[in-house]
Write a structure and sequence with these properties.
By secondary structure, the protein is mainly beta. It has 1 helix and 17 strands. The protein has 3 domains: about 45 residues, no CATH class; about 90 residues, Beta Barrel (Elongation Factor Tu (Ef-tu), domain 3); about 90 residues, Translation factors (Elongation Factor Tu (Ef-tu), domain 3, Beta Barrel). Belongs to the TRAFAC class translation factor GTPase superfamily. Classic translation factor GTPase family. EF-Tu/EF-1A subfamily.
Length: about 240
Amino acid sequence: ISGWHGDNMLEASTKMPWFMGWMVEHKEGKAEGKCLIEALDAILPPARPTDKPLRLPLQDVYKIGGIGTVPVGRVETGILKPGTIVVFAPANITTEVKSVEMHHEALQEAVPGDNVGFNVKNVSVKELRRGYVAGDSKNNPPKGAADFTAQVIVLNHPGQISNGYTPVLDCHTAHIACKFAEIKEKVDRRTGKSTEDNPKSIKSGDAAVVILVPSKPLCVESFQEFPPLGRFAVR
């Protein structure tokens, strides 16, 4: 393939007779071709988790004249429709969605991966903020976590980390300081098996299971149920 000369980009090139093409097998069948555009066409879109309960972390909240309060964010799981009664965790504010828009076009439903703005009734801009998570009040709504258990891998940290260490966590769109309340065990990074119970401290290269306590209310979910809301970075 040559992007510079355009060989095997949009149509098969005569300059590379040695290249026999490629072939890939899916459950849906075989796909084969010689050029880049065919390879792109053969990629199957990932399955969207529309069957799970709604989770939409807020990236921002706007006040738009003539419309009102418009939270903005990406649907991670579930479906958002006008008329849905949503709850914003961890503040536990409940309201109705009046309309849903993406790229200035009204949507009948927003699915995972869509970056949308949605207009809500009787909620002021000051009540909502980045890091809150919207969910369906009638279907497993999101809640704030008083504490949570997490597996942490220390990639690069000067010195040692012991109980009481309080870094800032970036979890979905939230940035909140969380305290390492208890380092329960050191584990093997590859197998996840416990190597030491209740260690005094952990350092770069270690993996551990710890109990974290957020300094402010934080909405976090189990990684098994909602992967985008169950992973975080510590800085």
